[in-house]
Design brief:
By secondary structure, this protein is of the alpha+beta class. It contains twelve helices and nine strands.
Length: 387
């Protein structure tokens, strides 16, 4: 399979690079990082390019689902700013993909046109203070009272919840001893009475703040259950279904974008920085480091695009997406740390983008299912016998 850019992918990259040059300068990316805030109108501007429609069916104003193009979009945006890429993911992935795949007809009509225009932002509400990898153990409860749900509990690591319109939230909707059977996904408006948020400061990926979300007798219509009546108490099938394979592509696309940006900076720096009367790119140890990161970049690209192509084509992809999440996230971290060494002290100083790349990439092996979880997934999916 040839994963080099075809005409459409090349045109998409050119479109995004022109947008970034025009609307998202390096200085702006640095400012979003310092302020831990990205203006919401950046998503509306991005939507004008059409990329927010890549996960929206045509009948709702989009261009139909294109997983390959979605991954390329995340990657290109992340090369300038993980905040900008994160804003896109909150719209096109957390929002459009889930609604388009699992929403009721009414939910599709209510959300998808606005999502395609960049007017609606979703956050995820999955983890809790005592629940991370074991999502089947969530304690946040949704009690049904006729046509209303009453929700109580606390969600953790809800990135962007403070400026999102809706949180797609995993809740316990029945007896806890049933685990996988009594879970539901609910669309919770962030302005609902009874919601309070506590912002959590993070080392990297600043611009999309993460939050604790506390829910005290929050009431939402039962119609806000993702998938409606048919999916009440069936939330695990939504969480672990086709959307999971796409979600496992989002973090490696982010990670690869950061790694590509770091390599570009180190590559250029090595040709400009003079030591001992010559550019440092003439020093063998530097040349070896740069050759190594370029090789790892190419391996990451091929693994990510191969997995994305399988998802896009509807082929079995669970092993491929877990491998891509594992390998690309871990390799991107190693790539960026090597590039920081090329810059020496400048790679540790404010004023150079490299120190931001380092802070941003460190979370990639943790986000979206940790590297340890992916190793478990791979062994289990490939039917490695257990004791």
């Amino acid at each position: 399979m040839d994963f080099s850019d075809d005409e459409d992918t090349g045109a998409l990259r050119d479109l995004l690079r022109r947008f970034i040059a025009r609307e998202a300068s390096p200085e702006m990316a640095a400012q979003w990082d310092r302020d831990d805030h990205i203006p919401r109108d950046m998503l509306v501007k991005l939507a004008e390019t059409g990329v927010c429609g890549l996960t929206v069916p045509e009948e709702f104003g989009g261009m139909g689902r294109d997983v390959m193009a979605m991954v390329v979009t995340i990657l290109e945006l992340a090369k300038r700013s993980t905040a900008l890429a994160g804003l896109y993911i909150m719209n096109a992935c957390y929002g459009s993909l889930n609604i388009a795949m699992e929403g009721t007809p009414e939910q599709k009509q209510r959300f998808l046109p606005g999502l395609a225009k960049g007017e609606i932002i979703f956050a995820y509400g999955l983890s809790e203070p005592d629940v991370g990898a074991d999502l089947a153990s969530v304690k946040t409860r949704a009690e049904r009272k006729g046509d209303t749900l009453v929700i109580n509990g606390t969600k953790r690591w809800c990135s962007g919840a403070n400026f999102a319109d809706t949180i797609l939230m995993l809740v316990r909707s029945g007896a806890a001893d049933a685990r996988y059977k009594n879970l539901s996904m609910v669309l919770v408006p962030t302005d609902a009475p009874g919601i309070t948020m506590l912002r959590v400061e993070a080392l990297g990926v600043r611009g999309i703040p993460t939050n604790d979300v506390m829910l005290d007798n929050v009431e939402v219509p039962f119609a806000n259950v993702l998938g409606g009546e048919a999916k009440w108490n069936e939330g695990w099938s939504l969480l672990a279904g086709p959307a999971l394979e796409i979600e496992k592509l989002e973090t490696p696309a982010l990670a690869l974008g950061v790694a590509e940006a770091a390599v570009a900076e180190a590559w250029e720096y090595s040709q400009q920085r003079q030591q001992f009367g010559a550019p440092i790119c003439t020093i063998q140890s530097i040349r070896h480091m740069l050759s190594d990161v370029q090789t790892k970049l190419q391996a990451c690209r091929l693994m990510l695009m191969s997995a994305a192509w399988k998802v896009h084509s509807g082929l079995p992809s669970a092993v491929d997406t877990s491998m891509a999440k594992l390998y690309v996230s871990d390799s991107a971290r190693d790539i960026v740390l090597t590039c920081q060494q090329v810059l020496g002290a400048y790679g540790y100083a404010h004023g150079f983008a490299m120190e931001r790349y380092v802070r941003d990439v460190l979370v990639m092996p943790i986000w979206g299912g940790s590297s340890a979880i992916q190793k478990n997934n791979i062994a289990n999916l490939m039917r490695l016998p257990r004791k």
